[in-house]
């Protein structure tokens, strides 16, 4: 298929209207450079904002002298934390009920924290004037190591919180500790392993930014911003700034990648709003690469101890884990309120267990806040990594093939809906065929034979397997909310008189192709060609309320809403058709785009005819209003649980310890597939992400809390050169509760690939006696692992 990527199974369902491999409607704009991003916006009289950031990780702010900066001829405004405090705006709520400083007042708590901002006539002057601000700091001991953050000697980072006397954020547990202990006690085999998921960063191509424009005459604030959740952000601004909600319009224009990085509200957005309120002018703030890497939402940073209990024959009985979670200086995690550790509870994976237990402690450190779901439905990436790594450790212990061990323990198809030992109800799944397909596509047995031949020649080759189950599509509103906002999505559909349609969504695309796939969903239901359906999204004045795009929730939640709203329109169309054809509703048959009278092939009306009648002259059936439109708010019954099987082949250079991913086979199951081409693109992107995390990426700090990964020279992200031609395949296990059976897929490959790659590297190194090595598996780490180990036979 495209880009030289081999596709094992090509859907040949190129239907004129509906699901299928359709080119993206948004691409003519993107490939011509006509995308319109926040930084493309130029408004008359617009001013530019730049932020002064702390060079220290932990220090008291003694004074901030802005006189020289204010004297700069092009500077219009300089604002400090003290000034914000006077207006009650120095602190803002985070998405997890903590507070975060907009500008520091008392202390700085991480390197890169916002201390003051300058608004000037151009971007350069604003940046220059930052250097004229004189801040006096009193350095404090930084808390960098999460393992010592709770020791009684550790300085208290969050002394702004009343009564806070340590760096503890929360304790959380799930599963049954006693039952798990009992299973571990009687198990033949117990394996445990310390596993670190290092701090990484979503690093979208476009950094974060905003243009705020407050119109003092009509009292309306318009904020163009890089947000994955425009409606949720608007409500929070209304609460923080005390502005009425209908006087705030949040627009999320084209977004150059989100990956979870654009879910939180950052101080920069609030600063831009304040600046526009104070100057009466539009104000633009766009961060640079270093600011994005140093100060915005990171991901992972979990130190985990994994334990697995099994019988000698390889029956897995229980999994147990203890996690120390680094949340940085402010708890900026974006997760549903009830789930402080996100959906980490799915760490039981794809296996039918007798017991499971997890205990987690989260702490503050002097590092950037976050813990965002970076291509990860709320910590599922960490959960899948833990279980897939520990299962491989067990396979090594039992000297059993890793595929064989997994196959023996899969939840069986007849067990769905399956309630896990931590209380998650997996909607559907059929795991063995997915694993079998991956095995066949990879030529697994031949690969093992090849590995034996190569080992005999002293070459270092590894084969790694992983199998994931994700939980995506948050969520039923009874269980899930963000800061009290229920996670249900509105959707509106309007069919114009000539049969063209516009569908309005609350979710927001950041490159996923929603303008195409949501048109396809409606097209499939109504028989209107997708080209005739306009998708409107990313503007709170134009779209119904909903919680936004993250955790692969758009298809599971808004996708369901789009299908159901189209069915509502179809129901109304049926009534109108019965009037037009002068038959009862029961005599009508629907066939994509057309209502026919049963048994009379010549009597039919198309959806376009019906649309015209709905708006035209002439009577409509009794009780039917004019127009052809509907709206809905969809509250999902459950999450959807996609799954997949991955096989990775690596070669390690014995001289340099450099890992090369030679082959990667990914078989994903996201239920009904709306657009196979887009799905493949999502999978290719996620697999590339996985190579980055497994082999290259880490946000590192020195002992003073200096971030060592503030540029793309230091924070390595993969390109086409570091990845193989992806080999993809799929199986289809529809979701029983989703109206079209679709599950999310956007994050699947990012979740499933790191364990496959690490398992492959560890498999390659097993002749050296190695059972585990932590990501990122850079040449130096692999070299260290190999060094001093006995040379393989
Ligand atoms: N699909 C289909 N079918 C199915 C599913 C799906 O077709 N079954 C498709 C859809 O429709 C879209 C896509 O695919 O278009 C995706 O989807 P989903 O899964 O639903 O998801 P969404 O929600 O839409 O999205 C989200 C995701 C996430 S979450 C992330 S990270 C990432 C992904 O997405 N990001 C991104 N991917 C991507 N891509 C791009 N290009 N960019 C970006 O940024 Mo988070 O939580 O935020 O962390």
TrEMBL record:
Any GO MF annotation of the entry: molybdenum ion binding
Region described as Disordered: 1-24
Entry keyword Electron transport: no
Domain of life: Bacteria
Keywords: Molybdenum, Oxidoreductase
Oxidoreductase listed as a keyword: yes
Pfam families named among the record's database cross-references: Ald_Xan_dh_C, MoCoBD_1, MoCoBD_2
Residue ranges occupied by any Aldehyde oxidase/xanthine dehydrogenase a/b hammerhead domain in the UniProt entry: 32-141
Obligatory cofactor(s): Mo-molybdopterin cytosine dinucleotide
Family annotation (NCBIfam families): CO_dehy_Mo_lg
Name under which the protein is recorded: Carbon-monoxide dehydrogenase large subunit
Record organism: Streptomyces malaysiense
């Amino acid at each position: 298929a495209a880009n030289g990527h081999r596709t094992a199974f090509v859907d040949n369902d190129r239907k004129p209207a509906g699901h299928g491999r359709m080119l993206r409607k948004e691409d003519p704009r993107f490939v011509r450079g006509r995308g319109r991003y926040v930084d493309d916006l130029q408004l008359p009289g617009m001013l530019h904002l730049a932020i002064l950031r702390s060079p220290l990780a932990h220090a008291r702010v003694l004074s901030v002298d802005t006189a020289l900066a204010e004297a700069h001829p092009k500077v219009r405004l300089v604002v400090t934390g003290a000034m914000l405090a006077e207006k009650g705006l120095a602190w803002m709520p985070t998405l997890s009920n903590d507070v975060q400083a907009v500008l520091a007042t008392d202390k700085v708590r991480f390197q890169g924290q916002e201390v003051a901002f300058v608004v000037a006539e151009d971007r350069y002057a604003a940046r220059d004037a930052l250097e004229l601000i004189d801040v006096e700091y009193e350095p404090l001991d930084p808390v960098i190591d999460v393992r010592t953050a709770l020791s009684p000697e550790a300085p208290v980072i969050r002394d702004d919180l009343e009564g806070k006397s340590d760096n503890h954020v929360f304790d959380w547990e799930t599963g049954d500790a006693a039952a798990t202990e009992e299973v571990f006690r009687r198990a033949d085999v117990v394996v445990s392993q310390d596993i670190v998921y290092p701090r990484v960063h979503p690093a979208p191509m476009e950094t974060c930014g905003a243009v705020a424009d407050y119109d003092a005459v009509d009292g309306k604030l318009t904020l163009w911003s890089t947000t994955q959740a425009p409606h949720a952000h608007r409500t929070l601004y209304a609460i923080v700034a005390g502005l009425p909600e209908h006087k705030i319009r949040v627009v999320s224009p084209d977004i150059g990648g989100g990956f979870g990085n654009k879910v939180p509200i950052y101080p920069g957005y609030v600063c831009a709003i304040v600046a526009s309120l104070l100057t009466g002018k539009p104000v633009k703030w766009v961060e640079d690469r270093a600011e994005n890497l140093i100060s915005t939402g990171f991901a992972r940073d979990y130190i985990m101890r994994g334990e697995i209990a099994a019988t000698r024959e390889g029956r897995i009985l229980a999994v147990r884990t203890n996690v120390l979670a680094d949340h940085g200086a402010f708890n900026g995690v974006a997760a549903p309120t009830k789930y402080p550790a996100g959906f980490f509870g799915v760490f039981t994976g794809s296996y039918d267990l007798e017991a499971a237990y997890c205990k987690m402690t989260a702490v503050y450190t002097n590092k950037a806040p976050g813990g965002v779901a970076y291509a990860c439905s709320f910590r599922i990436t960490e959960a899948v990594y833990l279980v897939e790594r520990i299962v491989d450790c067990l396979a090594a212990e039992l000297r059993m093939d890793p595929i064989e061990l997994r196959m023996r323990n899969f939840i069986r198809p007849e067990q769905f809906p399956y309630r896990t030992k931590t209380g998650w109800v997996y909607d559907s799944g059929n795991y063995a065929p997915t694993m079998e397909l991956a095995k066949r596509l990879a030529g697994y047995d031949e690969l093992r034979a090849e590995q034996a031949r190569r080992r005999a020649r002293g070459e270092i080759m590894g084969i790694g397997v992983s199998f994931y189950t994700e939980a995506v599509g948050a969520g039923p509103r009874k269980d899930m909310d963000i800061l009290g906002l229920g996670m249900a999505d509105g959707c509106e559909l309007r069919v114009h008189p000539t049969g063209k349609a516009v569908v309005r969504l609350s979710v927001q695309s950041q490159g996923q192709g929603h303008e195409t796939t949501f048109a396809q969903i409606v097209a499939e239901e109504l028989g209107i060609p997708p080209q005739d359906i306009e998708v409107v999204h990313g503007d709170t004045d134009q779209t119904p309320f909903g919680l936004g795009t993250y955790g692969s929730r758009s298809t599971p939640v808004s996708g369901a809403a789009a299908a159901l709203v189209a069915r509502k329109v179809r129901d109304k169309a049926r009534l109108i058709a019965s009037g037009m054809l002068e038959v009862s509703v029961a005599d009508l048959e629907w066939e994509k785009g057309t209502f026919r009278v049963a048994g009379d092939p010549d009597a039919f009306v198309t959806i376009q005819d019906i649309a015209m009648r709905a708006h035209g002259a002439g009577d409509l059936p009794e009780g039917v209003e004019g127009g052809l439109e509907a709206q809905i708010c969809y509250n999902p019954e459950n999450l959807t649980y996609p799954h997949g099987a991955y096989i990775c082949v690596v070669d390690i250079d014995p001289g340099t310890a450099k890992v090369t991913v030679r082959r990667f086979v990914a078989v994903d199951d996201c239920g009904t597939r709306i657009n196979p081409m887009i799905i493949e693109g999502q999978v290719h992107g996620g697999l590339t992400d996985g190579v980055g995390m497994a082999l290259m990426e880490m946000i590192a700090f020195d002992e003073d809390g200096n971030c060592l990964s503030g540029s793309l020279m230091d924070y390595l992200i993969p390109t086409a050169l570091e990845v193989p031609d992806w080999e993809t395949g799929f199986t289809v296990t529809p979701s029983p509760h989703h109206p079209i059976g679709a599950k999310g897929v956007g994050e699947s490959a990012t979740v499933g690939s790191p364990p496959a790659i690490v398992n492959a590297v560890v498999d390659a190194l097993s002749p050296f006696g190695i059972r585990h090595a932590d990501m990122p598996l850079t040449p130096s780490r692999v070299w260290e692992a190999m060094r001093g180990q006995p040379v393989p036979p």
